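PROTEIN DESIGN WORKSHEET
SECTION A - STRUCTURE
LENGTH: 259
C-ALPHA COORDINATES:
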Protein backbone atom coordinates (compact mmCIF):
# COMPACT_ATOMS: atom_id res chain seq x y z
CA UNK A 1 0.00 0.00 0.00
CA UNK A 2 1.30 3.46 -0.90
CA UNK A 3 1.39 5.71 2.19
CA UNK A 4 -0.27 9.12 1.99
CA UNK A 5 1.71 12.36 2.11
CA UNK A 6 0.25 14.35 5.00
CA UNK A 7 3.37 16.46 5.48
CA UNK A 8 2.89 18.72 2.46
CA UNK A 9 -0.59 20.06 3.32
CA UNK A 10 0.45 20.39 6.95
CA UNK A 11 3.51 22.37 5.95
CA UNK A 12 1.38 24.68 3.82
CA UNK A 13 -0.84 25.37 6.80
CA UNK A 14 2.14 26.21 8.99
CA UNK A 15 2.60 29.92 9.56
CA UNK A 16 5.98 31.59 9.25
CA UNK A 17 8.10 34.08 7.34
CA UNK A 18 11.15 33.49 5.18
CA UNK A 19 14.38 35.01 6.43
CA UNK A 20 14.98 36.51 2.98
CA UNK A 21 11.63 38.30 3.11
CA UNK A 22 12.13 39.63 6.62
CA UNK A 23 15.66 40.82 5.88
CA UNK A 24 14.56 42.60 2.68
CA UNK A 25 11.66 44.36 4.41
CA UNK A 26 13.87 45.47 7.29
CA UNK A 27 16.58 46.79 4.96
CA UNK A 28 13.94 48.85 3.16
CA UNK A 29 12.77 50.22 6.50
CA UNK A 30 16.33 51.06 7.53
CA UNK A 31 16.98 52.84 4.25
CA UNK A 32 13.74 54.82 4.55
CA UNK A 33 14.45 55.81 8.15
CA UNK A 34 18.00 56.88 7.34
CA UNK A 35 16.90 58.93 4.35
CA UNK A 36 14.05 60.56 6.28
CA UNK A 37 16.20 61.68 9.20
CA UNK A 38 18.99 62.83 6.88
CA UNK A 39 16.54 65.05 5.02
CA UNK A 40 14.96 66.35 8.24
CA UNK A 41 18.32 67.14 9.87
CA UNK A 42 20.42 68.24 6.90
CA UNK A 43 17.97 69.67 4.40
CA UNK A 44 15.32 71.18 6.66
CA UNK A 45 17.74 71.90 9.50
CA UNK A 46 15.39 70.63 12.21
CA UNK A 47 16.81 69.65 15.58
CA UNK A 48 16.86 65.85 15.79
CA UNK A 49 18.23 63.72 18.66
CA UNK A 50 20.93 62.30 16.42
CA UNK A 51 22.49 59.92 18.95
CA UNK A 52 19.24 58.21 19.88
CA UNK A 53 18.00 58.01 16.31
CA UNK A 54 21.34 56.66 15.04
CA UNK A 55 21.44 54.08 17.84
CA UNK A 56 17.93 52.82 17.02
CA UNK A 57 18.69 52.52 13.31
CA UNK A 58 22.07 50.87 13.99
CA UNK A 59 20.42 48.30 16.29
CA UNK A 60 18.05 47.30 13.50
CA UNK A 61 20.91 47.08 10.99
CA UNK A 62 23.02 44.94 13.34
CA UNK A 63 20.09 42.58 13.92
CA UNK A 64 19.61 42.26 10.18
CA UNK A 65 23.30 41.48 9.63
CA UNK A 66 23.23 38.88 12.40
CA UNK A 67 20.05 37.34 10.99
CA UNK A 68 21.63 37.03 7.56
CA UNK A 69 24.78 35.47 9.03
CA UNK A 70 23.07 32.93 11.28
CA UNK A 71 20.24 31.68 9.07
CA UNK A 72 20.32 30.52 5.44
CA UNK A 73 18.39 32.86 3.16
CA UNK A 74 15.93 30.08 2.34
CA UNK A 75 15.19 29.33 6.03
CA UNK A 76 11.86 30.15 7.63
CA UNK A 77 11.21 31.73 11.00
CA UNK A 78 8.26 30.07 12.71
CA UNK A 79 6.19 30.80 15.78
CA UNK A 80 7.93 32.69 18.55
CA UNK A 81 11.03 33.52 16.46
CA UNK A 82 9.08 35.38 13.79
CA UNK A 83 6.90 37.05 16.44
CA UNK A 84 9.95 38.31 18.36
CA UNK A 85 11.49 39.79 15.22
CA UNK A 86 8.31 41.67 14.35
CA UNK A 87 7.99 42.79 17.98
CA UNK A 88 11.53 44.16 17.74
CA UNK A 89 10.57 46.12 14.62
CA UNK A 90 7.59 47.57 16.48
CA UNK A 91 9.79 48.48 19.45
CA UNK A 92 12.42 50.10 17.24
CA UNK A 93 9.78 52.16 15.45
CA UNK A 94 8.26 53.09 18.80
CA UNK A 95 11.63 54.37 20.01
CA UNK A 96 12.08 56.46 16.87
CA UNK A 97 8.60 57.91 17.22
CA UNK A 98 9.22 58.67 20.90
CA UNK A 99 12.33 60.64 19.93
CA UNK A 100 10.54 62.55 17.16
CA UNK A 101 7.15 63.69 18.39
CA UNK A 102 5.16 60.55 19.13
CA UNK A 103 1.76 60.36 17.45
CA UNK A 104 2.24 63.90 16.13
CA UNK A 105 4.84 62.48 13.78
CA UNK A 106 3.16 61.78 10.42
CA UNK A 107 5.15 58.53 10.16
CA UNK A 108 3.30 57.08 13.15
CA UNK A 109 1.08 55.28 10.64
CA UNK A 110 4.02 52.93 9.98
CA UNK A 111 3.09 51.15 13.21
CA UNK A 112 0.53 49.34 11.05
CA UNK A 113 3.21 47.60 8.97
CA UNK A 114 4.59 44.93 11.37
CA UNK A 115 1.09 43.95 12.49
CA UNK A 116 -0.07 43.68 8.87
CA UNK A 117 2.92 41.47 8.05
CA UNK A 118 2.06 39.28 11.02
CA UNK A 119 -1.56 39.03 9.92
CA UNK A 120 -0.41 37.94 6.47
CA UNK A 121 2.23 35.38 7.46
CA UNK A 122 1.79 34.33 11.09
CA UNK A 123 -0.90 32.63 13.13
CA UNK A 124 -3.93 34.29 14.64
CA UNK A 125 -2.52 34.03 18.16
CA UNK A 126 0.77 35.68 17.15
CA UNK A 127 -1.06 38.44 15.29
CA UNK A 128 -3.34 39.21 18.22
CA UNK A 129 -0.35 39.33 20.58
CA UNK A 130 1.48 41.72 18.24
CA UNK A 131 -1.69 43.79 17.84
CA UNK A 132 -1.98 44.20 21.61
CA UNK A 133 1.71 45.20 21.77
CA UNK A 134 1.22 47.80 19.02
CA UNK A 135 -1.79 49.28 20.84
CA UNK A 136 0.28 49.48 24.02
CA UNK A 137 3.02 51.36 22.14
CA UNK A 138 0.45 53.77 20.71
CA UNK A 139 -0.97 54.45 24.15
CA UNK A 140 2.54 55.06 25.53
CA UNK A 141 3.38 57.45 22.68
CA UNK A 142 0.15 59.31 23.30
CA UNK A 143 1.25 59.95 26.88
CA UNK A 144 5.03 60.33 26.55
CA UNK A 145 7.20 61.57 23.71
CA UNK A 146 9.79 64.21 22.92
CA UNK A 147 8.70 67.28 20.91
CA UNK A 148 8.33 67.01 17.17
CA UNK A 149 11.53 68.16 15.41
CA UNK A 150 10.99 71.69 14.15
CA UNK A 151 12.97 74.78 13.22
CA UNK A 152 11.31 76.81 15.95
CA UNK A 153 8.83 76.00 18.69
CA UNK A 154 7.14 72.72 17.63
CA UNK A 155 3.46 72.90 16.78
CA UNK A 156 1.13 71.68 19.51
CA UNK A 157 -2.21 70.00 19.02
CA UNK A 158 -5.19 70.23 21.39
CA UNK A 159 -5.45 67.24 23.74
CA UNK A 160 -8.79 66.25 22.22
CA UNK A 161 -7.22 66.16 18.76
CA UNK A 162 -4.36 63.98 20.00
CA UNK A 163 -6.89 61.61 21.60
CA UNK A 164 -8.77 61.45 18.32
CA UNK A 165 -5.52 60.62 16.52
CA UNK A 166 -4.88 57.79 18.97
CA UNK A 167 -8.39 56.38 18.52
CA UNK A 168 -8.26 56.65 14.73
CA UNK A 169 -4.88 54.92 14.51
CA UNK A 170 -5.97 52.22 16.93
CA UNK A 171 -9.21 51.52 15.08
CA UNK A 172 -7.40 51.46 11.74
CA UNK A 173 -4.83 49.06 13.14
CA UNK A 174 -7.46 46.71 14.60
CA UNK A 175 -9.62 46.71 11.47
CA UNK A 176 -6.71 46.21 9.08
CA UNK A 177 -5.11 43.46 11.18
CA UNK A 178 -8.35 41.49 11.62
CA UNK A 179 -9.35 41.87 7.98
CA UNK A 180 -5.97 40.78 6.60
CA UNK A 181 -5.81 37.95 9.15
CA UNK A 182 -9.21 36.63 8.10
CA UNK A 183 -8.37 36.77 4.39
CA UNK A 184 -4.98 35.16 4.99
CA UNK A 185 -6.42 32.30 7.07
CA UNK A 186 -9.07 31.61 4.42
CA UNK A 187 -6.42 31.55 1.71
CA UNK A 188 -4.29 29.14 3.72
CA UNK A 189 -7.26 26.81 4.27
CA UNK A 190 -8.14 26.81 0.57
CA UNK A 191 -4.54 26.18 -0.41
CA UNK A 192 -4.22 23.37 2.11
CA UNK A 193 -7.48 21.79 0.92
CA UNK A 194 -6.38 22.04 -2.72
CA UNK A 195 -3.04 20.37 -2.08
CA UNK A 196 -4.71 17.68 0.05
CA UNK A 197 -7.12 16.94 -2.80
CA UNK A 198 -4.25 16.75 -5.28
CA UNK A 199 -2.38 14.36 -2.97
CA UNK A 200 -5.47 12.14 -2.65
CA UNK A 201 -5.98 12.08 -6.44
CA UNK A 202 -2.33 11.23 -6.97
CA UNK A 203 -2.57 8.40 -4.43
CA UNK A 204 -5.73 7.07 -6.09
CA UNK A 205 -4.02 7.14 -9.49
CA UNK A 206 -1.11 5.14 -8.13
CA UNK A 207 -3.50 2.68 -6.48
CA UNK A 208 -5.38 2.25 -9.79
CA UNK A 209 -2.12 1.59 -11.60
CA UNK A 210 -1.14 -0.92 -8.92
CA UNK A 211 -4.52 -2.62 -9.26
CA UNK A 212 -4.14 -2.88 -13.04
CA UNK A 213 -0.68 -4.39 -12.59
CA UNK A 214 -2.01 -6.92 -10.08
CA UNK A 215 -4.85 -7.81 -12.46
CA UNK A 216 -2.37 -8.41 -15.30
CA UNK A 217 -0.20 -10.62 -13.08
CA UNK A 218 -3.25 -12.62 -11.99
CA UNK A 219 -4.38 -13.03 -15.62
CA UNK A 220 -0.95 -14.33 -16.64
CA UNK A 221 -0.94 -16.71 -13.69
CA UNK A 222 -4.34 -18.11 -14.65
CA UNK A 223 -3.24 -18.52 -18.26
CA UNK A 224 -0.18 -20.44 -17.08
CA UNK A 225 -2.37 -22.59 -14.83
CA UNK A 226 -4.64 -23.43 -17.79
CA UNK A 227 -1.66 -24.43 -19.90
CA UNK A 228 -0.34 -26.67 -17.14
CA UNK A 229 -3.80 -28.19 -16.70
CA UNK A 230 -4.15 -28.84 -20.45
CA UNK A 231 -0.75 -30.51 -20.61
CA UNK A 232 -1.64 -32.59 -17.59
CA UNK A 233 -4.82 -33.72 -19.38
CA UNK A 234 -2.83 -34.67 -22.46
CA UNK A 235 -0.35 -36.60 -20.37
CA UNK A 236 -3.20 -38.36 -18.62
CA UNK A 237 -4.79 -39.25 -21.98
CA UNK A 238 -1.50 -40.61 -23.27
CA UNK A 239 -1.02 -42.69 -20.16
CA UNK A 240 -4.49 -44.10 -20.42
CA UNK A 241 -4.41 -44.90 -24.18
CA UNK A 242 -0.90 -45.63 -25.43
CA UNK A 243 1.35 -46.54 -22.55
CA UNK A 244 4.84 -45.52 -21.71
CA UNK A 245 6.09 -45.41 -25.33
CA UNK A 246 3.40 -42.92 -26.22
CA UNK A 247 4.38 -40.85 -23.20
CA UNK A 248 7.96 -40.70 -24.41
CA UNK A 249 6.90 -39.79 -27.93
CA UNK A 250 4.56 -37.06 -26.63
CA UNK A 251 7.28 -35.60 -24.43
CA UNK A 252 9.78 -35.65 -27.31
CA UNK A 253 7.22 -33.99 -29.61
CA UNK A 254 6.46 -31.21 -27.12
CA UNK A 255 10.17 -30.70 -26.44
CA UNK A 256 10.83 -30.33 -30.16
CA UNK A 257 7.92 -27.89 -30.50
CA UNK A 258 9.27 -25.71 -27.72
CA UNK A 259 12.72 -25.74 -29.24
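SECTION B - SEQUENCE
RESIDUE ASSIGNMENT:
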Amino acid sequence: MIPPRPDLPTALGTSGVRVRTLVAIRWMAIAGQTLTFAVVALVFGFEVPVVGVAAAIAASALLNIGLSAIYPRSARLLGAEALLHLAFDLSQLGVLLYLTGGLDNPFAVLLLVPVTISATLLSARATLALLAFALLIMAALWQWSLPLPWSGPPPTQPPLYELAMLISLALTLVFLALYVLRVSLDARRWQQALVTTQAVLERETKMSALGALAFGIDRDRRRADREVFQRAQRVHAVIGGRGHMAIAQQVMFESGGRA
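SECTION C - NOTES
Residues 138 and 167 are 9 Å apart (CA to CA).
Residues 1-13 have pLDDT under 50 and may be disordered.
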